[in-house]
Structure formats: structure tokens, C-alpha cells
Model the fold of this input.
Amino acid sequence: MRVRRLAAWTALPLAVTLGLAACGSGGDGGSGGSDSSVVSIQIAEPKHLVPTNTTETSGSQVIAGLFSPLVDYDAQNKPYEVAAQSVTSSDNKVWTIKIKDGFTFHNGEKVTSQNYINAWNYGAYAPNGQDTNPFFEKIAGYADLQGKAPKAKEMSGLKKVDDLTFTATLSEPYIDFKTTLGYNAFFPMPDAAFSAPGVLKDSYEQAPIGQGPFKMKGTWQHDSKIDVERYDAYPGEKPKVKNIEFRIYQQLTAAYADVLADNLDVLPTIPTESLSTAPSDLGDRYKTSPMSSFQFLAFPTFDKDYSSPDVRKAISMAIDRDEITKSVFKGSQTSARSFVAPVLPGYREDTAGKAAEFNPTEAKKLYQAAGGPSKIVISYNGDGGHKDWVDATVNQLKTNLGVDAVGSVEPKFADLLTKVEKKTPVGAFRMGWVMDYPTMEDYLGPLYSTNGSSNYYGYSNPEFDKLVKEGSAAKTQDEAIAKYQQAEDILAKDMPVIPLRFGENVFGHSSKVKNVEMDLFQRVNLVKIEAAS
Amino acid sequence: MFRYILRRLLQMVLAFFGTTLIVYALTFAGQGDPIQALAGERPVTPAQRAYLTEKYHLDATGVGGFFYRYFDYVKNLLQGNLGESLTGRNIGDILQQAWPVTVRLALIALAVAIIFGVTAGVLAGIRRASIFDNSTLVLTLLVLGIPTIVLAPLAQYFLGVKWQLFPPTAGSDPTFYALLLPGIVLGSLSLATALRLTRASVAENLRADYVRTARSKGLVKRRIVVVHVLRNSLIPVVTFLGVELGNLMSGAIITEGVFNIPGVGFNLFRGIRTEDGPLVVGIVSVLVVVYLVSNLVVDVLYAVLDPRIRYE
Done:
């Protein structure tokens, strides 16, 4: 009797749950689902969607669909024209940019050269606080737009010739200018984006109007999603799918669960926690492709402990890179033995030479001869999943060099940088780099020149600076690459940082899509992707 | 009663300013370099730095600067302006979007706690030391012992991915069904507590004098339990659930993250992670109000449920 009544009590809630389950599964699958014509792609909440203010991956993924770049990059990562008809210069200083006829903005406006000039001036004008501001610094007149109360609102180097042609005069010759034009800072913005000349409408960012293969469907639904649909008047290569939903996730693990359940179509980054199970979970829907990220260990070259190149070389030789990429990263990253990423024109293998080869006996000898410190500290930021490989590296240093080595954690990368900038002794510290456009200069300039924007380690070699400068002022690409390569050779000698790993896109997709490709900038190719029938 | 509520309201004003001041101070004291945090690992341009510094008064440093910024904030707050997050979004808008889904989730969690927790608690209380009582004891201890950070992904993996009974994530505009699994996960903790509370209370009341009187009058057991015991036993449970509702409204950082529900906890977590001081302070200020109000409601409810309690 007692048992039976108990059963009745538990049966009721169970029946309620089951009843709900039954009606739920008949519905749309819960979270808006994806019927065959909508392809969903994971992103994080973008910070901004104005082309001149977008530098992170999620934002640039969305605007890569809404806009069409002047140039894109081919399989060898050389630039070719897309929205541009031609980008030419006789002296690498005055560049003539002709845009293709037939491009229209999604509101029907014809794309003219003035749209480019307006957008670029907006980006370069310092009081607008745009993130991509420094990308315009090579254009003549850029300096006049800087500071709290700039002298001018327009760069003197930009001149309209006719509706489809304009010239960009640089302050000094720059061979790679055409390559930089693929970056999203150089997208045009329509007249409808501005409420007055140089003043962007607040509403523009909520529904950016571009000239690309997709147009906004509704507005940016913060923390939720961004819907786009095919723009039929787009004159370039037509996308295969009609609708794309960029679905916003805060945690990659949640998105990963959705891909497994076919609830999300593309996950551009597999979360680290799932790297070991992903190949078996996803089968042939688990993919990898090259990208540009470069992880390295930097040394405060001003600190006497690490000022000798031999100490840095010895530390480099004591690290077994292959072991770490295999055991910690499960093959999702590859060992780096050069100072620029393999995807670049001009990349050579093993430019760091012997110094990046694992050789514990030689390392120990060299370290002792050079009088390296008795304790090596490696600082890293605790919020980026770096603990595992730093621990592994530290253990290798302990074993192979016979010194004490510890990892030291800072809460955030910003905290680490603040300490480095104040020259607080933090020991060696990790850094990473992702390119903005595929040129060697994009690595060499900011990272190792004396005034480089990310040279936090105080490395300075006048010879190196000169070669990079000569490279960017070269007459031809080949000549430029030769100079850059000479500069890279100097790095191999001085070893201001030690290369550790190159990244890869490690991504997965649902069984509902095919032809999923990712580019060097961690973006899904929106034109190629197709619904699987 | 009226005087009591009035006095409590006045206390709330003080409590509100006290807590916001502390939260504001903590958020900005613990902050490293919010502008660098915003940019992630790329270098911050001088233009961007100057722009943000001016916009958020980050150049006002030291004690004087802190109070300048705090009073500026409070002034805007009193005008109903919660300010802008570091990414330039209006915090009022963010909350307006985040709130409805969090409230729905909280109500589901609460309903789960009431339906299952109170029912099972009454049963366990009536049949002390039975198999049912002992098994619920073990189960609730288990649930209380497993943190949400383990429970939520496990539930998601098994019920969402493996057996596909529920959608694995809820998304921004979820159906009731999609919110059910996160609701159950979130409610399980309150469920366990509500169950233990109800059981103890029922068991105690069953031994009370008035129950013995009712029984000797010849009332049927069902009537004794439902009308007399249950009503009296629910006082502590209602108190608990009232406070719990305030808790749940503040958003469940872990649950909302795991199930991708863009509610209050989701935004709070992002604010903390990206060192978005204005966003964190904005959300917490509103949460302070939610807590104060829900506490007041619970205190007033005491008097309504138990006429012996009077506030003067």
C-alpha cells in the first residue's frame, strides 16, 4: 500500500516532464533551430561593427560578409583585386586606386571613390577613437588628424580623381600598401552612414550598410544573434547560401555542445577542453587549416639576467617544442622555428637555425658558459589557457638546464603588459601575435623594431631597423622580401624572443553544411559554405 | 505596519548608497588597465586610449578622483541613467534585454523547487525513516554536494547532446521547453534546501499539541496534514523561497553561461571578465535594489502568514 502510493507520487511529475518533452520535440527544436536555408555560425558578442573600429575576430567575421574588400589574398597570400579594378603605383608612394563599376551599397547607393575617402578619414581622425586608427599612418597628412584637437579633419594624401578613381599619397614609399588594403579598416562607408560630414550616425553600427555579398536582416541583436541575407545585386561571386545567422555565444563549450547536437552549424574554434575528444566526436567534420598566429617567449633584454643572446639561445635549445605541441596541444598547434608565420610570402623554414633545435646537452653547456641566471621565471596571463604549456616548458628547463624554473601567473594580459612597461622584473614572458595582412613587415615592424608598437622587450638593433625600412621602401616585392629576410636573419643571431608555436584553425561543423573553409584570419569563408543536401 | 514599511524603505536608501559605494570602490580598485583589457592582446593606440580615458574619466585618479567619479555616477544613476559600458552600449538597454529571460528562468527554477521540493518534503516528513525519506536524504545531499559548475555541463552533455531529450543550449529567445533543463539545474539546489526545510518543519509540527488535539477530535489524517500541518509548516519554506527568488533574479552566472542564455548573470560575467567596470557596477546597483525589495517583501510576508508576528 505504502509503496504503491509512493509510486503514484513520483509518477505524476514524471508524466508532466514526459508530456512536455513530447510537445517540445515536435516544435522548432528549442533555440530557433536552423532550417536548411539558414546557416548558423558561432561568434562572440562583437565589440564593434563599424569597419574602422573592428579589430577582433567576431566583429571582423560579420563585416567580412557585409563588405567586400578592395583586395583579397590568393592561395599564395598575394593580393588580388576584388572591389578594386586596379591598385597601381609607379613609385610606391602615389597609389592610384580604381574601383570596379557596378558595386552598390545595400541601400541602393552607388559605391564611389568618395565613400572610401570618407570612411578612411573617419577612421584616421583621432577624436573618433577608432580602433584601426594606426592603419592609416602611412598616408600623407595622417599626423594632422591626431591629438586632442587635430589641425585637420581630412588626410591631405587622399584625393578624388573621378567617381571611380582616387589616389592615396603616402608619406614615404611603401611596397606593401596594396596588401594592406585587404584589411577591414579600408572598407568604404555609404553616405547614409553619416549624419554630417565626418559624423557617424549612432544607428549605423546597429545595422551596418556595406557593399558585400550579404546584407543585414534587421539589426544587431546584442548578446543574441546577427542575421544576414544574400544581397542579390552583389556583382562579385555569389554565396551559395541565402541566410546566415551569426549566433552569439559567451562560452565555446556551449557552442561545442550545440555543434554535436546539430543545433549550430559552424564552430570556428574548438574549445581547448574538447580538443582531445573532438576528432572522435566529430569525425570528418573536425578540421584544421593554417592561420597566422605566432606564440613566442619574450625576454626583457634590458634585464642583465637575459641580456646575453647566448642565454636566450640556450633556453630556446632546452625546450622540446614538438613534445609540447603533441602532448599539451594535441597537434592543434605546430612548432615554430622561424620568426614569421608559414603562411606569408617570404617565409623560410628554420630561420632560427640551431638555436631552435632541441639539444639539451649543448643547451646546458652554452647556458653555463654564458652565465645564465640560476632561476628562470616565465610570466603568463592566467585567463588564456597558458598554464599547461608554461608548466611543461618550465619542467623541461629544470631538467635540461639544471636550474630552478617557475611559472608566474598574472591575472590578465593587461596586468602583465603594465608590469613589463614599468620594467618590473617578471622574467621571460609569453606573447602572441596575429597578422592583420599577410606581409612579413606586419610581423617584423611592430614586434622587433626599436619603436615597434608591440616591442615590450626593449630590443633595438639599428641594422635591423634599417633593413625593415629599406624593405618597405623597396621597388619590387622580391626586393622587399629579400630585405625582410635579411632582417629576419639578424633576429636569429640576436634571439630577442624565442619562437615557440604557430597556430592553426581548429574548427568543426554540423552535418547540415559542407565546404566549410576558414581563412588565415580565423574567419569562415561565407561565399564557399554550402548546405549539405 | 505602515510605519514599519516606511522605516524599512528609509533604511533601504542608506543600504543602497552604502553598497553601491563599496561595489564601485572594489571594482575600480581591483581594476588593472581597463583600456588594455578591452583591446585584449593587441597594442592600444594612443588615439583610442585618449578617447576612452576622457569618456570614462579614467584620468581622475586618487581618492579625490574616485569620489569625483562616484558622485558623477550616482548623479547619473538618480536621473535613471546607468551609463555606458566600455564597448559603448547603454547599460539600461542591456539590462532591459537581459532581464526577461532571467526572470523566466528564475520562475521555472522556483516552480521546480516548489513542485518537487515541497511535495517530497511533506512526504518525507510524514513518513520519517521510511525508504522514501532516506533516499531523498541521500539524493538531496548529493545535489547539495555537486556544484552547479559540474552539474550543468553534465546535464547538458547527457540530456542535451547524448540522448537529445532537450536542446543543449537555450539561446536568446528560448521556448519554455528550451529553458526547462537550465531551470531544473538551477532549481535543483533550492529544491534540495526546500525539501530539507519542509521535511524538518512537517516532522516537527506533526508532534505539536494542536495535531494531537485534531487527531483526538477524530479528524481524518488527510485533513490534518493538508489543512493544519502543511499551512503551519510552510512559514519557513516561504521565507526561504522568497529570498531565493531574489537570488535567482540576480542571474545564474554558471547556468546562463553553460546554456548560453543571455541574461543578467551572463552579462555580469562578461563585465567581470573584460574588466568592464561601468557594466559591473551598473548591473550590481540594480541587483542591490532587487535584493532589498525581495527582502522587504519576505519580511512583510511573515506578518501575513503568521498573525502572531506584528511589526510596530
